[in-house]
Design goal:
With about 300 residues, the chain is mainly alpha-helical. It is built from 15 helices and 2 strands. The chain folds into 2 domains: about 25-55; about 70-300, MetI-like fold (Orthogonal Bundle), CATH 1.10.3720.10. The longest helix has about 40 residues, at about 15-55. This is Putative spermidine/putrescine transport system permease protein.
Amino acid sequence: MTTVTTDMPDTTETSPAAAREANERRRALMLLSPGLLWMILFMVLPMLMVIYVSFWTQTTFAVNDTLTTASWERFLSSATYLGAIGTTLRIWAIVLVATLVVGYPVALFIGLFVKNQTVQTALLVACVIPFWTSFLIRVIAWRPMLGTEGAINTILMNLGLINEPLTFLLFSEFSVLVGMTQIYCVFMVGPITFMISRIDESTIEAARDLGASFGTIFRRIVLPLSMPGVIVGAIFVSVMVLGEFATAASLSGRKVNLLGNIIVSQVGSLKWAFAAVAGVVLTIIITAVITLALRVVDLRKEM
């Protein structure tokens, strides 16, 4: 009897393609590991700690690590805390719209009508010049502008437009809105300008050759292509406005109570559990806002 032997492939050996793919995965993991470690140490773990502290037992002058939901129940049943959530969301929405209304025309002018890149850069730097000074100085500088004897009331009275000073301009929600709009408007201008400046001029010229008006060009070309910049600017403004406390405390005379002010006051009173609850609620709100914004435009595709 003749025995026939066949050479079977050695499945224990790794093919060159599989080895190359494994090496690429290891290289990618090595490149990502520092960033992942940084995120875990300085974002995930602190956030988990804040959530853990929010369930601690809070007494008048002390806090201990006995877990309870008392702080959450008190927060969610308090008209003061719930009112702070409503005020925070209302001011965020108004400031977001105001920065878009004020910032978009500026970005449109710089990105579309200014052709010289040096001039574009100079105009963007001019928008950033206020950030060369302290944040608190920029906030407090609105007081002599909006006060009853401030510049705005003085000018209006000298022009005969009003007979007595307008008292709602300072130490009110209006002053907070004005201050936040001025401070954070540049964060809306920058991303929108970047996206508008990327629009191919030949596309706009082709639309003009076909007889499209400026309104049609703006509605069908400029606005859709600038939406990623609008979303990025909205995320920047939202994160900073939702976490605000200094502008509200300085310009409202502590009449406007935001979630940020709740956190600061609770930390100052050593009520860590209540502050942690407010911090978790604020984080949930910010996460929801960012998630909603990213669902409007796929930044990974558009950028």
